[in-house]
Amino acid sequence: MSRGGARFFAYGAPFVALVAVGASGLARVVGGRLEVRDALGEVDARAPARTQRVRRAMARFDAEAERRRLIDAREDREAYEMRAVWRPEGGQGH
């Protein structure tokens, strides 16, 4: 066996094995965390109302969805118009 081949088995093979085992372990840990997060996000109809409120409160806030919900809540969508909000004289952005 050549000197380079012996060097690969001495240093390279353990490094490659460590990378493979580390990647496998990391995938398992991250996958478990994602499963737990997904399970917490699901709403169980049998869960107490307090638990459901906590889960909904933990959900991420989507500003665009909230804006659409507010617009849709109005009687007539065409009645909605964007208007400038009055600001005091010293306010910025005027």
Short description:
It is found in: Mitochondrion inner membrane. The protein has three helices and no strands.
Describe the overall structure.
The protein is mainly α. It has one domain (3-79). The chain is 64% helix and 0% strand. It has 3 helices and no strands. The longest helix has 39 residues, at 3-41. It is elongated. The protein starts with a helix and ends in a 21-residue tail after the last helix. The mean pLDDT is 77.
Describe the SSE topology:
Blueprint: H1 3-41, H2 49-58, H3 63-73
Pfam family, one: COX16
Keywords: Membrane, Mitochondrion, Mitochondrion inner membrane, Transmembrane, Transmembrane helix
Family: Belongs to the COX16 family.
Helix share, percent: 55-70%
In DSSP terms (H or I, runs of 4 or more residues), the helix count works out at 3
Low-confidence stretches: none
SS content category: mainly alpha
Question: Regarding quaternary structure, how should these chains be classified?
Answer: single chain
Largest sheet: none
Count of domains:
1
Outline, from the CA principal axes?
elongated
How many individual β-strands?
A: 0
End-to-end span in angstroms?
Answer: 79 Å
Overall pLDDT level: 77
In N-to-C order, the SSE pattern is HHH
How much strand?
Answer: under 5%
Instruction: State Rg.
Output: 28 Å
Main location: mitochondrion
Pfam families: COX16 (PF14138)
Subcellular location: Mitochondrion inner membrane
Family: Belongs to the COX16 family.
